[in-house]
């Protein structure tokens, strides 16, 4: 199902138009804009659309996506690799403005663009029966937004966040991540259960176009993913909520949650990953490649995804920003670029000294049909849900057969690629051939399941999720880089530090939260569930 975003030019704050007019007995009537939005006629569906779109990236040229998802998460997880000097994540260097980008600075970022919008929808629709479904969809989306925020930073403003207009609290407290997760699980369970097939139409929904049956499956799939985060810190609660979600999650790739973007809306409606990887901001198009770790994994298993997601000779020179039309998809020709390399004078780290190096054009790039400006941003997928159910079945024997869920999850992870573009389609038969050659192994199940999850979320380009699940599960076992001057003593980072701007904006709360981070408020510190 296609879910296009058309350009929406709707202010998030009601505008009032003033006219010059002489005084008459009809002054109020004449000087009141009949189409201006106010408390009585504002439709919060528009604000839901904004919150959904901004989840895929900030208004200001992919500010958060460029830095949080790509520069840091993708390279730390060895999905992508680069020699671009400012891509600090590839070498575990700390660039505080980059790690703060997702939180938000100035007028962009999650708290500014996502949290404000979604909290406004939740609060405005509360106790309004005509918006009951919208209210509960917004609660589910709010849980999605805050789950990512707390996964990246740990303790964060949650219960008081975004409520300044309603409560006059402008310096929200930082809630403990354990408390946040407790509330996220409760919210997801109750909001999903409250959705009604015969209720109000959610007209602002750019994911499912108001399909409540799909939202119900989305809510339960997100409940499953949220619960599984807790396996190392509260196994009993994880198991409890997984059992509540079991049997109610996504049924097929037709349930995948994604947004197909629109190029005509300038930056704000284009695919954010694409804007960066097509070189709009620099030379990412030429110097950002698939990581050797990722490509080697696909090649070692004769994975049918390899010939679809990877191409060589996409760009033949540094100045060539256009697709040259002669790229190579032959899986035997694909070659990933090692992480932790540069273009500097130290031969140990200069990419040209690496045994794999020939030319940059011969390293594998993402297939251009994965990174179209009108392409998909994936939010949550059936493949993820089935792989998580496979792990739950393996751990606790609930929800059916681990082997069956694993097969469904891997098959879905292989065959969903056509949702990027029809040219990337892989047949069910090819997926089944792969599964026959790479059968489920109960003796090594957790590694096998979570390595597949890693590969799947990399192809989704949801590197935030790749990083979170890797921290939770420990799989795959990645060999870290140890670049000179790195900020983690050569270990893969575990969280983003808090923005230093919080010291001035929310000082007392910030200082208390910063002092409480296990391992310190730095890249090597840990969030609560990451034991």
How is the secondary structure organized here?
Layout lengths: L26 H4 L14 H11 L7 H14 L3 E3 L13 H4 L10 H16 L6 H22 L2 E2 L6 H4 L6 E2 L1 H18 L17 H17 L6 H11 L11 E4 L5 H4 L2 H6 L6 H4 E3 L1 H9 L5 H4 E2 L53 E2 L9 E5 L1 H15 L5 H14 L12 H10 L7 H16 L2 H11 L28 H4 L1 H9 L16
Antiparallel strand pairs: 1-5, 2-3, 4-8, 6-7
List keywords for this structure.
single chain, 531 residues, mainly alpha, two-stranded antiparallel sheet, 43% helix, 4% strand, globular, disordered N terminus
Tally of helical segments: 22
The outline comes out as globular
Straight-line N-to-C gap: 39 Å
Which strand order spans the largest sheet, edge to edge or round the barrel?
1-5
Strand content: under 5%
Number of strands: 8
Instruction: List low-confidence stretches.
Output: 1-32
Helix and strand composition category: mainly alpha
Quaternary class? single chain
Largest sheet: 2 strands, antiparallel
List the secondary-structure elements in sequence, H or E.
HHHEHHHEHEHHHEHHHEHHEEEHHHHHHH
Mean pLDDT value:
91
Helicity, as a percent range = 40-55%
- Please tell me how large the radius of gyration is: 23 Å
Describe this structure in words.
This protein has 531 residues and is mainly α. It has helices at residues 27-30, 45-55, 63-76, 96-99, 110-125, 132-153, 164-167, 177-194, 212-228, 235-245, 266-269, 272-277, 284-287, 292-300, 306-309, 382-396, 402-415, 428-437, 445-460, 463-473, 502-505, 507-515, and strands at 80-82, 156-157, 174-175, 257-260, 288-290, 310-311, 365-366, 376-380. The protein contains 22 helices and 8 strands. It has a two-stranded antiparallel sheet. A two-stranded antiparallel ribbon has the order 2-3. It is 43% helix and 4% strand.
